[in-house]
Specification:
The longest helix has about 35 residues. The protein has 14 helices and twelve strands. The radius of gyration is 24 Å and the shape is globular. The chain has about 375 residues and is α/β, with parallel strands linked by helices.
């Protein structure tokens, strides 16, 4: 009898060990980005995964791959929706073709409404932005995803060209790469717009399929090889002067996570966003100098007449799309109301840094020339 009892206890013990081992098996998720492996934003995707892996003690493991590893760059969101990918790292402007309002969560010409990247992130987190974006994807587009803002991004250059842009007339007829709402802006300024993912831009410029292009920042542009095919870069533009990226998850799989795991993801998103913002300041400024010193790139300031034209065109696009689509109108109105309060406070409170820069660094600081 004692022997039989011992055998039963042993069997129960072995069974419990198996159950415990099964419970401790890590959750492994596949995540793909819309970026090339060397791109600056791929580093941010990797950072997010590392933080989740560390904070979860390895219980949730996110394996990251670059654009094209599993699906093409522009198919990442669909792949997350279908469960082909568990998560994705990308840019909402790439889904402009699904719904025009997607671009309002990525970058908007005119600021948006004068907001910088931190103002924009504040609208996403503390205004209506994040709630509206998830409702757009889940309710209007019927996508089985949940998204988080990945980071705020600094203002983009106007773009890379064969020669400086002196005025609006110089734009006419140029074959130009753009994406999101910027594509609409440049079309209305007379350009022939081509939409391409990051990894395809420089080869297209090199083969003469494009006359000019924009992508993102000094670091990403340098890594992609822009200075190998162009030595002219126009700085300052309203086409994407504030933007945010996104981390998306398959909603079914995300909802099934324990509350603690969801909290880890939430905190990892914010931590990775801050990490990219700080690194961007350091990286972009270094590469801005390197582009001039090593790559012999000439930087020019976009003429004010072009900037004014951008604002005028974007205002017309806003009115047209708001009249066509009530949801677009509602989201744009939310942004505008938030910006009116925040930007006025910002401009009234914070002092311009130009006087201080001129005082301490003068003409020694690299500065864009006038076209």
């Amino acid at each position: 009898m004692k022997k039989a009892f011992a055998l039963v206890l042993g069997f129960v013990f072995i069974l419990s060990l198996g159950t415990l081992a099964s419970a401790q098996q890590p959750i492994v998720w596949k995540m793909q980005s819309t970026w090339t492996a060397a791109d600056n934003h791929q580093v941010s995707a990797n950072t997010f995964a590392e933080k989740v892996n560390t904070m979860s003690g390895g219980r949730l493991k996110i394996e990251v791959s670059a654009a094209g590893a599993i699906v093409p760059a522009f198919e990442v969101l669909d792949a997350v929706h279908k469960g082909i990918l568990d998560a994705g790292h990308g840019w909402p402007g790439y889904w402009f073709g699904k719904h025009p309002a997607c671009t309002l969560f990525s970058s908007v010409a005119g600021g948006p409404f004068g907001m910088d990247n931190m103002d924009f992130m504040a609208w996403m987190y503390l205004g209506d932005g994040l709630k509206m974006y998830n409702e757009l994807l889940q309710n209007d587009l019927k996508m089985n995803v949940v998204v988080f803002p990945a980071s705020g991004e600094t203002a983009e250059p106007q773009g890379w060209f064969k020669k400086p842009i002196a005025d609006i007339k110089t734009f006419k007829g140029l074959k130009f790469r753009a994406a999101g709402a910027a594509s609409e802006v440049f079309k209305n300024l007379g350009m022939s717009v081509v939409i391409l993912p990051g990894g395809e831009i420089v080869p297209a410029l090199d083969r003469g399929l494009l006359d000019g292009a924009e992508f993102n920042n000094a670091t990403s542009d340098r890594i992609l090889g822009f200075p190998d095919v162009s030595k002219v870069c126009m700085l300052q533009s309203y086409h994407q002067s504030a933007e945010t990226f996104e981390i998306s998850f398959n909603k079914t799989k995300f909802d099934a996570l324990p509350a603690k795991m969801k909290a880890i993801i939430d905190n990892a998103v914010e931590a990775a966003s801050s990490d990219l913002s700080w690194k961007a300041i350091d990286r972009y400024s270094k590469d801005y100098v390197e582009l001039q010193v090593k790559d012999k790139v000439k930087f020019y300031k976009t003429p004010d007449t072009v900037l004014q034209a951008q604002l005028k065109v974007w205002n017309a696009i806003l009115e047209k799309k708001s009249a066509e689509n009530p949801l677009f109108k509602e989201i744009a109105a939310s942004q505008r109301a938030f910006a009116e309060r925040v930007v006025k406070w910002d401009q009234d409170t914070n002092i311009s840094r130009r006087m201080s820069v001129n005082h301490f660094f003068g003409s020694q600081a690299p500065a864009p020339k006038k076209a």
